[in-house]
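RECORD TYPE: inverse folding
INPUT: structure tokens
STRUCTURE:
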């Protein structure tokens, strides 16, 4: 199971990231530097990194990068994580990336989903998901939520991370 962790901040730099010795991956990987309150994190963005709404991220954008907290990382400064999901801030939607249990509650106990007939449930490739999304890693896109613990919301869209 993926242990989703995140870092939120402002993109300060985007550059190419070399992965092979003979240039076979040249231009396919990017290093995205994100700063927040003096803390700096580098995200390695690969062709498999999922960008919510397929946005193009630029220097100056406010973003949240999600990575696997259980994955090995090089002991360097600033920390360097392999980005699994990248989200550019938006004032009209919230995003939560986490494992949701059989009650559709996030693993941190902060969000519970109430699925309606209007909730779009899709795979990362945009194709419809025909099963129940419980007990899975999900990218949840939602608007308003209750102030209870856990907060409850009816998501606009659920992306199932198979």
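DESIGNED SEQUENCE:
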């Amino acid at each position: 199971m993926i242990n989703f962790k995140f870092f939120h901040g402002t993109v300060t730099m985007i550059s190419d990231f070399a992965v092979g010795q003979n240039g076979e991956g040249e231009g396919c990987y990017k290093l995205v530097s994100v700063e927040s309150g003096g803390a700096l994190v580098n995200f390695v963005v690969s062709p498999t990194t999922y960008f919510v709404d397929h946005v193009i991220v630029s220097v100056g954008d406010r973003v949240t990068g999600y990575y696997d907290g259980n994955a090995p990382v090089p002991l360097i400064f600033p920390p360097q994580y392999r980005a699994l999901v990248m989200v550019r801030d938006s004032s009209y939607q919230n995003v939560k990336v986490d494992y949701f249990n059989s009650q559709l509650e996030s693993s941190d106990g902060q969000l519970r989903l109430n699925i309606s007939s209007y909730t779009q449930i899709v795979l990362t490739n945009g194709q419809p998901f025909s099963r129940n999304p419980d007990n899975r890693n999900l990218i949840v896109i939602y608007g308003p939520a209750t102030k209870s613990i856990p907060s409850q919301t009816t998501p606009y869209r659920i992306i199932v991370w198979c």
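NOTES: The chain is about 0% helix and 45% strand.
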